[in-house]
C-alpha cells in the first residue's frame, strides 16, 4: 500500500512538545557542561558526556523543525547562564544520581509527547528521543548499581496464593486497624522519595550560591517544604518497617561561587516542583488507603502554591519565557 504523505503544519501539541523540550535541553546543556568540567570519576564522566551529546543533538534537531515551520527559536538558556570555571558544587556521587532521576523525568515526558504526536516526523523523532533516554537511564543506573550508590525499593515476602479483597476496610486508614501498605503504594512513595531527595540537594546547593535575596528566600522555602514532604513520604514506608532511600545532603560542597545564573536555578527548581505535582497525582491514583490518598492531596495543594509563587517571582524578574499562544481574534478585531 502506497503511503500518503500529508504536509500538515505542526499541531499545538507537537509545537508544545518541541518548545518545552528546547527549553529543557538548553537548560540541561548548561548543567552538563559544568558537571563534566568537574567530574573526576571516569565511569560517571562517560555517562555525563553521553547525556551532553543527546542534549546538543536534540537542540539542533528542534532548531531544524522550527526553521522549517517558520517558528521563532526559543531563547532558553545560553552560555551566559553557566560558569563552567566555577568550583564543584556537587560531588560525583550526587551527579550520577541526578542524571538517573532526570532520565526518569525524560522518559515520562517523551512518552507523553509520543502519545500526542500525529505527524510522522514527530512520531519518529520522539520515538528516537525516548529510546535514547532509556539508554541514558540504563547507563546511569548501571553505574549507580556497580558503585553501590543506588537504593533499591523494599522487597516483599512471597505469598502462597492469589487473594481477592473481601472487606471494605481495605480502603480505611484514618481510624482503627489499617492494613499494611501495598506494593502499588510502596512503588509510588519510593519513587517520590527518590525525586524529593534529589531536589533537596539541588535546593541546598543553589541556596548557598544564588545572588538574589528573593531567590535565596524561595530556595530555602522550597527546601523546607520538600523536607516536610520527605518526612511524610518516608512515614508511609517506615510505619510498616520498610526502608527508605538514602539521602545525599552531604554531597554538597562548601563552594559559594555560582556555577549558574539565578534565572537558570530558579526556573529549574520551579520546573521540578511543577513536575512533582504530576508524580504525586500518579501515586495518589494508585492509593487504595484513604489516609495515604489524603496525604498526597495535601502535598499536591502545598507544592502547587509554592510552584505558583515561584512562577510569580519569575514573571516579576522577567525570566519566564512565554510559550506559543493561540491567536486572539478578539484583540485583532479591536486593533483593526
CATH homologous superfamily label of the largest domain: Ferritin, core subunit, four-helix bundle
Shape: globular
What is the distance, rounded to the nearest whole angstrom, between the alpha carbons of the first and last residues?
49 Å
Mean pLDDT reading? 90
The helix tally amounts to 9
Structure, explained:
- It comes from Bacillus suaedaesalsae.
- InterPro entries: DUF3231, Ferritin-like.
- By secondary structure, the chain is mainly α.
- It is built from nine helices and no strands.
- It has helices at residues 12-38, 42-69, 92-115, 120-146, 183-207, 213-238, 262-286, 290-316, 329-334.
- 36% of the residues are buried.
- The model has no long low-confidence stretch (mean pLDDT 90).
Topology (SSEs and partners):
Layout: H1 12-38, H2 42-69, H3 92-115, H4 120-146, H5 183-207, H6 213-238, H7 262-286, H8 290-316, H9 329-334
Helix pairs in contact: 1-2, 1-3, 2-3, 2-4, 3-4, 3-5, 5-6, 5-7, 6-8, 7-8
Keywords: Membrane, Transmembrane, Transmembrane helix
Pfam families: DUF3231 (PF11553)
Transmembrane segments: 264-281
Amino acid at each position: 500500500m502506497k503511503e500518503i504523505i500529508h504536509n500538515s503544519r505542526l499541531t499545538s501539541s507537537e509545537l508544545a512538545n518541541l518548545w518545552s523540550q528546547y527549553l529543557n535541553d538548553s537548560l540541561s546543556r548548561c548543567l552538563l557542561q559544568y558537571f563534566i568540567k568537574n567530574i573526576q570519576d571516569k565511569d560517571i564522566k562517560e555517562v555525563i558526556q553521553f547525556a551532553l551529546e543527546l542534549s546538543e543533538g536534540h537542540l539542533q534537531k528542534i532548531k531544524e523543525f522550527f526553521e522549517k515551520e517558520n517558528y521563532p527559536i526559543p531563547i532558553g538558556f545560553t552560555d551566559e547562564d553557566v560558569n563552567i570555571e566555577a568550583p564543584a558544587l556537587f560531588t560525583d556521587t550526587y551527579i550520577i544520581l541526578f542524571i538517573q532521576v532526570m532520565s526518569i523525568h525524560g522518559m515520562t515526558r517523551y512518552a507523553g509527547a509520543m502519545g500526542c504526536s500525529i505527524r510522522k516526523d514527530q512520531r519518529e523523532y520522539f520515538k528516537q528521543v525516548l529510546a535514547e533516554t532509556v539508554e541514558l537511564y540504563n547507563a546511569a543506573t548501571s553505574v549507580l548499581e556497580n558503585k553501590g550508590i543506588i537504593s533499591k525499593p523494599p522487597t516483599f515476602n512471597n505469598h502462597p496464593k492469589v487473594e481477592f479483597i473481601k472487606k471494605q476496610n481495605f480502603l480505611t486508614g484514618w481510624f482503627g486497624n489499617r492494613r499494611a501498605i501495598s506494593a502499588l503504594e510502596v512503588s509510588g512513595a519510593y519513587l517520590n522519595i527518590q525525586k524529593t531527595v534529589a531536589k533537596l540537594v539541588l535546593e541546598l546547593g543553589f541556596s548557598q550560591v544564588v545572588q538574589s535575596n528573593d531567590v535565596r528566600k524561595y530556595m530555602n522555602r522550597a527546601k523546607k517544604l520538600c523536607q516536610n514532604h520527605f518526612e511524610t513520604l518516608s512515614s508511609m514506608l517506615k510505619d510498616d518497617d520498610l526502608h527508605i532511600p538514602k539521602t545525599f545532603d552531604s554531597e554538597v560542597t562548601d563552594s559559594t561561587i555560582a556555577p549558574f545564573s539565578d534565572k537558570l536555578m530558579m526556573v529549574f527548581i520551579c520546573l521540578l516542583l511543577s513536575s512533582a505535582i504530576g508524580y504525586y497525582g500518579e501515586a495518589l491514583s494508585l492509593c487504595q488507603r484513604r489516609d495515604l490518598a489524603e496525604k498526597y492531596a495535601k502535598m499536591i495543594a502545598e507544592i502547587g502554591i509554592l510552584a505558583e509563587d515561584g512562577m510569580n517571582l519569575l514573571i516579576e524578574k522577567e525570566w519566564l519565557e512565554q510559550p506559543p499562544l493561540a491567536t486572539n481574534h478578539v484583540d485583532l478585531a479591536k486593533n483593526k
